[in-house]
């Protein structure tokens, strides 16, 4: 598995955001939707529900797929809100550092 798939995906999301409409792009469809940020947020909500149902149904394969959908749409929503993904990584790292005090 690629160690930094999240960084790679974030880079693509940023490239799509800055790109042109020439190439069909799902990320751009979400980022430049007429509903504005409500569209990517709507997708986060939908994917969260689908993920919960997959887990509750004990469907491991579906759960993995829905988790990936959820994380992807979460990242697109962060871009829509102009919040860099690095901030999430930093927050998680800080929490790890804090937790380490009690390990
Ligand atoms: N990881 C993903 C990814 N995961 C899911 N999806 C798309 O997310 C959509 C969500 O599925 P749904 O069943 O909810 O779709 P839908 O109901 O038709 O969608 P809506 O009308 O509700 O928006 C599908 O169209 C999937 O193709 C993704 N689309 C893109 N990526 C990544 O983003 C990159 C850039 O994509 P483009 O912007 O399309 O070039 C790709 O190379 C991938 O790495």
Describe this structure in words.
InterPro entries: HisE (IPR008179), PRib-ATP_PPHydrolase-like (IPR021130). Belongs to the PRA-PH family. GO terms for molecular function: ATP binding; phosphoribosyl-ATP diphosphatase activity. The chain is mostly helical and 103 residues long. The protein has a single domain (5-100), classed as MazG-like (Helix Hairpins, Orthogonal Bundle), CATH 1.10.287. 74% of the residues lie in helices and 0% in strands. Helix 1 (5-18) crosses helix 4 and helix 3 packs antiparallel against helix 4. The two termini are 28 Å apart. The model has no long low-confidence stretch (mean pLDDT 93). It binds phosphoribosyl ATP.
Ordered list of secondary-structure elements with their pairings:
Elements: H1 5-18, H2 26-31, H3 38-56, H4 60-80, H5 85-100
Helix pairs in contact: 1-4, 3-4
The structure holds phosphoribosyl ATP.
InterPro entries: HisE, PRib-ATP_PPHydrolase-like
Keywords: Amino-acid biosynthesis, ATP-binding, Cytoplasm, Histidine biosynthesis, Hydrolase, Nucleotide-binding
Subcellular location: Cytoplasm
